[in-house]
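Fig. S4 source data, part A: sequence.
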Amino acid sequence: MGIRVSKVSAIEILDSRGRPTLATSMTTDAGLLTSAAVPSGASTGTREAFELRDGDITRFEGLGVLDAVENVNGEIADALVGREFAHLSELDELLIQLDGSTNKSRLGANAIVGVSIAAARACAMSDGLELWEYLRPNGVTARLPVPHFNVINGGAHAQNSLDFQEFMIAPLGAPSLAEAVRAGAEIYMKLRGVLRAKRYETGLGDEGGFAPDVSRPEEVLALLVNAIEEAGYTADRSGVAIAMDPAASEFYRDGRYHVAGESLTSTEMITWYEELTTNYPVWLLEDGLAESDWAGWKVLESRLGDTIELVGDDILCTNPSIIAEAISENIANAALIKVNQIGTVTETLEAMKLCRDAGWAQFVSHRSGETGDAFIADLSVGSGCGHLKSGAPARGERTAKYNRLLEIDTAHVLTYGMAR
């Protein structure tokens, strides 16, 4: 049916780290009212769409987003109000053309993506569909994803000495979404006790995971295996597996990886990953090498690509043109999907289609600065991607996504699990 826009607006709100972000709303001539809240990343790729900040050091240390808010209330609203759009792609294309830059730096990707998500919800409501149904591409089977819970934080997400950024538990063997969520929550609770018994602090990082002051990934992996087993589960790829996001760009300097007190070459990092994935039930490695180390990524894919999922985040930035290049050069075998990295829902779906057509996996993700908006839960279901990460099974902005999945699961009979 499409929509005719009658109002678009935005306000400045706070994300889960206490930093400003945008909440946008859209009203249609049919009286539909939708909204969206925009996430923000801490560990970001250099080729991400541009997040517009005010730079006024007298407000929020320069992190305010009043300029982006004004761009929504002014130029974007002027362009959309009174216009009719048959499909979301038409509206998103207008936003891209209106901005006119290569990385959405003029109006701000944070302004544009909030409008795009609100518009996606309006289009779904206009067509009488749930959001995940509207986002489902033709020929794709909707699927409830395996949740990947970030239970130990390091790197840019925590104030500890752990260079690797995320350690996730993935209940690959759970028979249902509800059982997967239960496993994640039970292991998270057990992990707190394991850490306390070893006299580690149990403070939390940005994404709700614990932030013990350890430096070696091996220590973390052993702690996770302990917690998984103490919670009554099996720590392996047919039970509860582990996923890692070192976010290697954060510790890559002068052609070497400065990590855990060592200075390593790409080859030495890859050998280390081979050891970790052999000795522990690690099934997925995200950003194992830096975004600029394409030569290293090719070697990583040749040595580990047949045994684990190798996910590109900073190196790909949910950008269809970069993903197409990476596919042609055999870089990685999966892409992390973050809507605000590219700036519109339509471009996000295009990136995911490129991955599907090439046989790559897609791993839908939150950001470290989050809100209660659960858009990515619907995106993960509609895209049939098979896995989603939204932080720990704790804190409202994280559990909002998992709880939305449970709502969808309760209301619909859908396939659950990894898309293999």
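Fig. S4 source data, part B ends here. The mean pLDDT is 96.
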